[in-house]
Design goal:
The two termini are about 20 Å apart. The chain contains 12 helices and 12 strands. It has a 6-stranded parallel beta sheet with strand order 4-3-1-2-11-12, sandwiched between helices. It has a 4-stranded parallel beta sheet with strand order 8-6-9-10, with helices on both faces. It has a two-stranded parallel ribbon with strand order 5-7. Strand 11, helix 12 (about 250-260) and strand 12 (about 265-270) form a beta-alpha-beta unit. It has helices spanning about 10-20, 45-60, 70-75, 80-85, 95-105, 130-135, 135-140, 155-160, 165-185, 200-210, 215-230, 250-260, and strands at about 5, 30, 65-70, 90-95, 115, 120-125, 145, 150-155, 190, 215, 245, 265-270. Helix 1 packs across helix 11, helix 5 (about 95-105) packs across helix 11 and helix 9 (about 165-185) packs parallel to helix 10 (about 200-210). By secondary structure, it is of the alpha/beta class. The protein is globular. It folds into 2 domains: about 5-95 and about 220-270, Rossmann fold (3-Layer(aba) Sandwich), CATH 3.40.50; about 95-215, Rossmann fold (3-Layer(aba) Sandwich). The longest helix has 18 residues, at about 165-185. Bound molecules: D-glutamic acid. The site of D-glutamic acid has 17 residues, from helix 3.
Length: about 270
């Protein structure tokens, strides 16, 4: 049994870490497409092709279920993957829905009509491609009414994190939060809609101020995966070992991952 976790680079490790804590006996196969990150400035066809390649590689590791721990791939490619590409015995799930269910205080799979929810001013921080797709607003509209979403495309943040330049990443986060606040001075909630951003969560919190509730995906996705696997134990796959794969430079990616996760992580070439 193994579950696959896919990201354009290092960000999905935030999801992997939360899943590993929640389900310590579950082998996880990680695929970071570091050679092609960031996805956030690519077009939808490109993101689709790269994502399918990564998902297929995770199937080879014995994963029948793959989590796209990448909002950009979830926004730009997931629907096409689910509707037109995936064979019947495999599943690919994204990371938007658990976040939106938490924001709208819904239980897993609650498909009742959209209703008013506690928050009305929400700031969304995401990559340029995720913001352009409007996928977040679309999913939210299925569940909630009267929520004003102001989206901020956070250009450069993923690149800086991938390069290990956290000083630049911090400066960019602060300037993106300022830009958002000029458009929406008092958000009640903020969505970190990119799995790289929890690596800068403290900076987002600090720049937003204590009155803003920050939603970040890792734990929400881990909870919903655990729930999904209880209901679909057949999706556990036949992979036996945890493995970390990258299309980038394994030594460099291992160093960065070890620093972010604060435990030794060794990537192999994908
Ligand atoms: N972690 C990816 C996401 O959640 C980053 C996308 C990118 O590579 O730009 O969107």
């Amino acid at each position: 049994m193994a579950v696959g976790i896919f990201d354009s680079g290092l960000g999905g490790l935030t999801v992997l870490d939360a899943v590993a804590k929640k389900l310590p006996d579950l082998p996880l196969a990680y695929y970071g497409d570091n050679a092609h990150a960031p996805y956030g400035v690519r077009d939808a066809d490109d993101v689709f092709d790269l994502t399918c390649k990564g998902v297929k590689r995770l199937w080879e590791e014995g994963c029948d279920l793959v989590i796209l721990a990448c909002n950009t791939a979830s926004a730009a490619a997931l629907r096409r993957i689910q509707e037109r590409w995936i064979p019947p015995q495999k599943r690919v799930l994204g990371v938007f829905v658990p976040l939106i269910e938490a924001l709208t205080e819904r239980d897993w799979g609650d498909n009742s009509p959209p209703r008013e929810v506690a928050v009305s001013n929400v700031a969304l921080f995401a990559t340029p491609a995720t913001v352009a797709s409007r996928a977040f607003q679309r999913e939210l509209a299925f569940r909630a009414i009267g929520v004003d979403v102001e989206a901020q495309a956070c250009g450069g943040v993923v690149d800086a994190i991938e390069e290990g330049d956290l000083i630049l990443a911090e400066a960019l986060v602060r300037s993106h939060v300022d830009a958002l606040k000029r458009k929406m001075p008092r958000p009640e909630a903020a969505i970190l809609g990119c799995t790289h951003y929890p690596l800068m969560e403290q900076v987002f919190r600090d720049a937003l101020g204590p009155e803003v509730k920050v939603f970040s995906q890792a734990n929400l996705v881990a909870d919903s995966l655990s729930d999904y696997l209880e209901r679909h134990p057949n999706m556990l796959g036949d992979g036996k070992a945890s493995v970390f794969l990258t299309t980038g430079d394994p030594a460099k990616v291992s160093d960065q991952a070890t620093r972010f996760l604060r435990r030794k992580v060794e990537f192999r070439p994908a």
